[in-house]
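We modelled the chain as a single entity of 201 amino acids. Its sequence is:
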Amino acid sequence: MGRPRTPLIDRARITTAALELVDAKGEFSVVQIARKLGVQTGSLYHHVDGRDGIVELLRERVCEAIDASMFDASPWDAALAAWARSYRAAFAAHPRAIPLLMASPVRAPRVLEHYERAVGLLLDAGFALADVMRVIIALENLILGSALDLAAPEPMWELGDDQRDTPRLALALAAAPLGRADAAFELALGACLEGFRALVD
């Protein structure tokens, strides 16, 4: 039988299959991807560099949704805030990918380019070189934590019918606005930016 005119697998199909598995189960294996695509496991290795290569393809796929044009905006703090919101939305769409991606170093060239532009934005804004990665990592901690929070149930605290042991918590929860994850993210982002401005000043 001759070769099919359209390849059964390529890097894009492998990435899609892996991401579907991660979204459903929080994990993937090369065998599972091959089974999902209806090919032999060995066929995948003609297209990707094993499991680590697939992880980097996943990182690139998720990060494609981040709007890198934000780095061309000004002032720097508005650009950084817009990037943070776009970054959060991209990872909130695939929260189960976060632990997987955080367990391995970033190698994907297109993702490293995002970091290069973020570093350039901060250096051009006047940040000291020693502060640049601290700022980026602090912001990422906020972004990824909030992306996970978006996947959590909206009523995160269940007090039960008898609230005598937690009366102040009950009042605070009743007074909290809807969309707690968004409100908390904006509050924390504002606090971060205020701290970052102090570093430049």
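As a brief sanity check on the tokenised model: The two ends are 70 Å apart (CA to CA). The chain has two domains: 11-48, 67-200.
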